[in-house]
Amino acid sequence: MSCSLLSLPVELHLKIIEALLRDKDIEAHEEKQDDEAHEEEQDDEAHEEKQDELININHDLIKWSCTCSYFRNLLAPTIFKTAKLVNDEKSGSSLNAVAKSPHNVHVKDLHFIGSALGDAHSEEAAFSDTEGILPRSVDALLCNLQWFPSLERLSIRFDYNFESMDDWVEGLDLLAEPETPQQVLEFEASAAWRALMSRTFYALTKNKPPNFKHLEIRQLHSKNVSTFSNAAFHECLNHFEHLTLSIHGEDNGAGWKSNTTQEYPALMEKLDEYFFNHLANVTILSIKAPKEGPLGLEGMNHVPLALKPDQMPLLATLHLGYIFASPELIDFLVGHKDTLEELVLCNCYASTNTYSGLAINGVYWSQLFTSLFSADPTQLRRLELVEGDMCLLDYEGFTEEQYEEVLTVHRQDPERIALPYAYLDDKYGMLFYDEEESLAAFVGGEDQRSWDRLMELVERNVKEATKRERKSVELQVQ
Predict the structure, then answer these.
(1) What pLDDT score was predicted for residue 34?
(2) Where does the pLDDT of residue 399 fall: very low under 50, low under 70, confident under 90, or very high at 90 and above?
(3) CA-CA distance, 44 to 32, in Å (whole number)?
(4) Which phi-psi region, left, alpha or beta, contains residue 112 (left: φ > 0; alpha: ψ -120 to 50)?
């Protein structure tokens, strides 16, 4: 007995769509877990390539939508939810067609990925084609994002792999001095890859105001961009409610990391001037620094975190990656005690110079937790410390006596957290696990006691928030 798909109820069609999407989500989740399992073997470029693959639409749904107009209309909200744009005419024309169609209302996520020739191709005409690097059709889309009235997020990434000797001659230049504003403009006028960054961010300023609330900048390169100093760009930033910023890190092939250069800290120290001072409406902030250049603290190879207490007055959610606990972070958290609801620290470390390290203003985890507890953050309802690739209980470099000391404390207090300490190498800038400081803090217990006090406060806030919500529901029912 034959059964036409069209004869099935629409509810079942939607269930089939959900199943296809779920299969893709499971596959993506498994790939993500595999990535995490091999984190040490992957660099940021490999991770970003994997993220780009996950942007691609489910091809099964596309094939299904081609069968008839009914399924095309049914599947359109799913197929067009995420759109990808690159800086070539074909991509621009294709997305322009979507923008002028009824399907434009379905686009909620737009991912722009820009690419250009590296300086190894400086003799080729395309390297200096600063006009053609951003085709008119692509520029028009970036300048008119209101063409997608339901847009929620714009993601921007520039696909420059500086470690490729086939594309780049300079790569990571340890000796290059920070560029002056005039030099930045000159490079943007002569090199297409520099012009692409400037023109892309400038296009955003033409959206007055932007109709989307979430700006994501993936793998920000440590090259200055003239648009970052533009007042129109700062005004644009003031309209966003959610900013996600990840920073590109690398080494020069011989071991020296980004934080040993002059350009990297020069740009990172200006993130306040370029971004953070202009986020009046941001409630969610995510900053992921690279392992090749963690942010926070002062001292050799350290780069201070450009967060200040008076920035982002509405901030409720803060996610940080590869950030050192530092006086500037403590001041920022305390300064947002009345608004901060969620704090997630992933691959974050404390650092002192008691045993190792270069930081001249290092702090213990207990100092950060105690300062935040003393400030009484009444809205804080989630506090999470995500373990990274440095964990005391898995460390294999201890002597037999040290390992027995760890096991003894762990047996006596199985709930005790091994809060991580790390330091930067004085020559290469590498991030190393500080096993001595981590062991001393684990055995001493002060970090744990301060964490417990803060978690008790968080749990109290959760209970009080639940009571308020329950009472509000009861009043509405009445």
Answers:
(1) 43
(2) confident
(3) 14
(4) beta
Opening angle at CA 105, ends 102 and 107, nearest 5: 120
Please report which confidence band the pLDDT of residue 283 belongs to, taking 50, 70 and 90 as the band edges.
very high
> Per DSSP, what are the bridge partners of residue 247?
220
Could you tell me the two tokens for 396? 């294999």
Other beta carbons within 10 angstroms of residue 461's beta carbon come to 19
The tokens for 133 are 């690097």
3-state secondary structure of 431: strand
- Which residue type occupies 474? E
The H or E element that residue 75 is part of is: helix 69-79
Task: Give the pTM.
Answer: 0.89
| Helix, coil or strand: residue 102 | helix
Distance of CA 254 to the CA centre of its chain: 27
pLDDT at 345 over 70: yes
Q: Is 250 exposed, middle or buried (0-12, 13-18, 19+ CB in 10 A)?
A: buried
CB count, 10 Å around CB of 460? 13
In the structure encoding, which two tokens stand for residue 269, read together? Answer: 């120290």
Residues 276/267, Cβ–Cβ less than 8 Å: no
17 against 129, higher pLDDT = 129
According to DSSP, residue 350 is labeled B
